[in-house]
Amino acid sequence: MRLFITAIGTDSGKSLVSAIITEALQADYWKPVQSGLPRDTDTVRSLVSNPRSYFHKEAYCLTQPLSPHASADIDGVRITLSHIHLPETNNHLVIEGAGGLLVPLNEQDFVIDLADKFEAEVVLVANLYLGSINHTLLSINELTRRASYQKFSIKGIVFNQSPVAASESIILKHCPFPLLFSVKKEEKIDKEVVSRYASQIKNIFGK
């Protein structure tokens, strides 16, 4: 199984959801493009307990916490899809994107184009805040549009920092793919919290 974790925007909870799914599947984890520090790979590694998961090296590790195309320009490099190669593994692989699905990698390619290149199943993370309904439905529409001609499928949506019942219900009414699970607002995020959610979702991913 190859899962691509994207979101409605920056700081929506991709790394937390990636850690939960990685732990549930005892999957490998890979962040193809890291823009700024701390590295999301280190964050996810610190939240995963199982001994099987392997954390693959980024194709690009950029210094500035900016859109990858801008950070790459500052670092004097150019991101190209042809330079990003799928890691070799016999395990499930969780791939974490950068920012939202239409964050630019260069002048023509977006983060979601990585899901297309690797023919992954997409998981959309939506955090709930004032304005998130619009951002989430726009992301859902764009994913659905692209899935009609690109080589990725859509696994489902995850709500982070739920519940906001009115927001969730209207989003799901207009969402053609399923709700996979929801993450409540936790006082702290640690291995125990990730393990608890992971144990609850194993069946969702067919483990």
Automatic annotation (TrEMBL):
Which pathway does the protein contribute to? Cofactor biosynthesis; biotin biosynthesis; biotin from 7,8-diaminononanoate: step 1/2
UniProt keyword Protein biosynthesis present = no
**Which sites bind ATP?**
11-16, 40, 96-99, 160-161
**Superkingdom in the source lineage:** Bacteria
Cofactor dependence: Mg(2+)
Question: What Pfam families does this protein's entry cite?
Answer: AAA_26
Please give the InterPro entries that the UniProt record associates with this protein: DTB_synth_BioD (IPR004472), P-loop_NTPase (IPR027417)
Q: Which Gene3D superfamilies match?
A: P-loop containing nucleotide triphosphate hydrolases (3.40.50.300)
Q: Where in the cell is it found?
A: Cytoplasm
Catalysed reactions listed for this entry: (7R,8S)-7,8-diammoniononanoate + CO2 + ATP = (4R,5S)-dethiobiotin + ADP + phosphate + 3 H(+); (7R,8S)-8-amino-7-(carboxyamino)nonanoate + ATP = (4R,5S)-dethiobiotin + ADP + phosphate + H(+)
Main EC class the enzyme belongs to: ligase
What residues make up the catalytic site? 31
Q: Which residues bind Mg(2+)?
A: 15, 40, 96
EC number(s) in its UniProt entry?
A: 6.3.3.3
- Keyword field: ATP-binding, Biotin biosynthesis, Cytoplasm, Ligase, Magnesium, Metal-binding, Nucleotide-binding
* Recorded GO MF terms: ATP binding; dethiobiotin synthase activity; magnesium ion binding
One Gene Ontology cellular component term attached to this UniProt record is:
cytosol
Tell me, how does this one assemble? Homodimer.
Give the matching HAMAP family. BioD
UniProt family annotation = Belongs to the dethiobiotin synthetase family.
PANTHER family registered for this protein in UniProt: ATP-DEPENDENT DETHIOBIOTIN SYNTHETASE BIOD 2 (PTHR43210:SF2), DETHIOBIOTIN SYNTHETASE (PTHR43210)
Question: What name goes with this protein?
Answer: ATP-dependent dethiobiotin synthetase BioD
